[in-house]
């Protein structure tokens, strides 16, 4: 079966991932899944001002998911909405289990995610970007979080639901996954799905997560190792000595 | 550079262990498996889960006698007991000062951490006021907070000069092995340079602009081989021919010259 955009059922849209795109943020990343584009910036860990929110045992994580006004066909009203508040919350919870928050008591780590272009599966792109940005900021984490959607059209399971598909699918199921720990940190479902299919769809989404995980690692490596190599090349050298001389 | 780091460098390079999935100097991201073996211990920025050791941060693997650690490439300063840091006085309280040392939470300098006699009822802002820079020692860092102290021969208040920030993970490279890099810069330019472990660098002297350039260069090229040679060449190329510093830069342990309220045994001079 071919899909609306000519993909195979278990094929992800073209992936672009890049770390360190924002100069002012501690860590940042941009993730494109087809035309869906998410950009994430990480600030902190820094002191949390408003002492009643501080937690003396661990840092708190603040996630803001925001769709820019020009991200969809119809202009999105700027500012928080019911939808964006909810997505911010689920993304925060998906990331919290991976970050070693207990290392920064009384602090706050802020993650700002903007959706520049939306064509389905925005929370998934946002999560992937946030995860790369957190690692890029040097924040200790037990694992990266990768995320992917899966669904079902008629009798076929499809990976990475996109564009018009979202309107015709019976079901759309985003999953966030920690590939090392093999744990799911976000699981939502839109639409109906027979019980017997749920496991298969989750499995397919996890397969997608694993593909994206490799790309996330690659994006980080490209930035950090690539940067070192570029500087070395500019100096006419080839060796990188690592942490020591 | 702390003593611990020095011994680390001197340890002989080990043979590659085929069991290691990531060798010494390899790049890792959080969650990368380094080894599956109970022979290795997780060190800094690493953790054990079951039989395997994983990286916790983005950085470069370092293998030292069966202890695995990750030298981070990014991140904020993680205070350690005994570190010398440069901080800015943020607030003056009734029994101490709050010092901003570029960590998520400010450090506290209690009255007991100041040398000399302080008469009761003294206005503490006269000793250290908001905005003053101090070079101090970290004496404790717990969940409750970070404490610093001036009870160290190197500790002092910094007057004048220029301040710049570098990534705290690059500080060991700026100091160099047994202080070789920093003493090279000081000797060649005649500037007084103090490097805080928290990545704050204080520069004072005629050639401070050049030192700023050099420090930024080190920040950029810290992980590329032959850094000392490049810095030496850079300094020679940028200093005027036959430049001789007017005076020798001060040793860290020399008593500070001005604004000193220490060694004032005489009661009448005390605050």
Structural overview:
The complex is a heterodimer of chains A (245) and B (271). Chain A has one domain: GHMP Kinase, N-terminal domain (Ribosomal Protein S5, domain 2, 2-Layer Sandwich). In chain A, 30% of the residues lie in helices and 29% in strands. Chain A contains four helices and ten strands. Chain A has helices at residues 82-96, 122-136, 165-168, 195-234, and strands spanning 15-19, 27-33, 36-47, 60-67, 107-117, 146-153, 156-159, 171-178, 183-187, 190-191. A five-stranded mixed sheet of chain A has the order 1-2-3-5-4. In chain A, strands 6, 7, 8, 9 and 10 form a five-stranded antiparallel sheet that branches. In chain A, strand 8 and strand 9 (183-187) form a beta hairpin. Chain B is an alpha+beta fold and 271 residues long. Chain B has three domains: 19-72, OB fold (Dihydrolipoamide Acetyltransferase, E2P); 84-158, Beta Barrel (OB fold (Dihydrolipoamide Acetyltransferase, E2P)), CATH 2.40.50; 162-238, K Homology domain, type 1 (Ribosomal Protein S8, Chain: A, domain 1). Chain B has helices at 3-10, 171-175, 180-189, 208-221, 227-238; strands at residues 27-28, 33-36, 41-42, 46-49, 52-55, 59-64, 67-72, 84-92, 96-100, 107-110, 133-142, 145-149, 156-158, 162-165, 192-195, 200-204. Chain B is flat, with a radius of gyration of 21 Å. Mean pLDDT of chain B is 84; it is low at 6-12 and 255-271. At the A-B interface, strand 3 and helix 4 of A face strand 6 and helix 5 of B.
């Amino acid at each position: 079966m071919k899909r609306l955009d000519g993909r195979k059922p278990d094929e992800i849209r073209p992936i672009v991932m890049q770390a360190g795109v924002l100069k002012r943020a501690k860590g940042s990343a941009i993730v494109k899944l087809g035309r869906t584009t998410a950009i994430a910036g990480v600030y902190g860990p820094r002191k949390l001002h408003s002492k009643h929110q501080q937690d003396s045992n661990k840092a708190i994580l603040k996630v803001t998911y925001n769709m820019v006004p020009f991200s969809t066909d119809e202009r999105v009203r700027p500012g928080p909405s019911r939808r964006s508040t909810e997505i911010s919350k689920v993304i925060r919870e998906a990331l919290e289990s991976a970050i070693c928050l207990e290392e920064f008591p009384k602090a706050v780590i802020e993650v700002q995610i903007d959706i520049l272009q939306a064509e389905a599966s925005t929370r998934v792109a946002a999560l992937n970007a946030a995860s790369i940005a957190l690692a890029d900021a040097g924040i200790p984490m037990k694992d990266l979080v990768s995320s992917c959607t899966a669904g079902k059209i008629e009798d076929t399971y499809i990976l990475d639901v996109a564009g018009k598909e979202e309107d015709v699918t019976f079901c759309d199921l985003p999953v966030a996954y920690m590939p090392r720990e093999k744990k799911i940190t976000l699981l939502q479902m839109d639409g109906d799905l027979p019980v017997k299919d749920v496991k298969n769809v989750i499995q397919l989404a996890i397969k997608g997560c694993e593909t994206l995980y490799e790309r996330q690692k690659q994006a980080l490596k490209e930035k950090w190792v690539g940067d070192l190599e570029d500087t070395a090349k500019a100096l006419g050298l080839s060796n990188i000595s690592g942490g020591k001389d | 550079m702390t003593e611990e780091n020095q011994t680390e460098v001197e340890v002989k390079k080990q043979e590659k262990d085929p069991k290691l999935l990531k060798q010494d100097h390899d790049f890792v991201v959080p969650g990368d498996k380094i080894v599956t073996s109970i022979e290795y211990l997780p060190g800094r920025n690493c953790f054990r889960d079951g039989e395997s050791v994983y990286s916790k941060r983005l950085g470069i693997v370092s293998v030292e006698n069966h202890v695995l650690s990750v030298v981070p490439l990014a991140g904020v300063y993680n205070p350690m007991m005994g570190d010398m840091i440069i901080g800015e006085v943020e607030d003056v309280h009734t029994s101490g000062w709050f010092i901003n040392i570029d960590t998520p939470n400010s450090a506290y300098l209690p009255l007991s951490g100041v040398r000399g006699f302080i008469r009761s009822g003294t206005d503490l802002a006269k000793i250290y006021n908001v905005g003053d820079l101090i070079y101090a020692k970290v004496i404790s860092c717990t969940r409750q907070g970070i404490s610093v102290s001036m009870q160290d021969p190197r500790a002092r208040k910094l007057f004048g000069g220029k301040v710049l920030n570098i990534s705290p993970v690059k500080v060991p490279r700026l100091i160099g092995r047994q202080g070789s890099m920093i003493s090279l810069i000081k000797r060649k330019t005649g500037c007084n340079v103090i490097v805080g472990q928290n990545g704050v660098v204080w520069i004072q002297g005629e050639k401070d602009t050049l030192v700023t350039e050099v420090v930024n260069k080190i920040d950029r090229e810290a992980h590329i081989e032959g850094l000392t040679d490049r810095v030496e060449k850079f300094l020679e190329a940028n200093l005027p021919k036959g430049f001789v510093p007017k005076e020798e830069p001060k040793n860290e342990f020399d008593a500070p010259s001005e604004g000193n309220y220490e060694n004032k045994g005489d009661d009448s001079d005390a605050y």
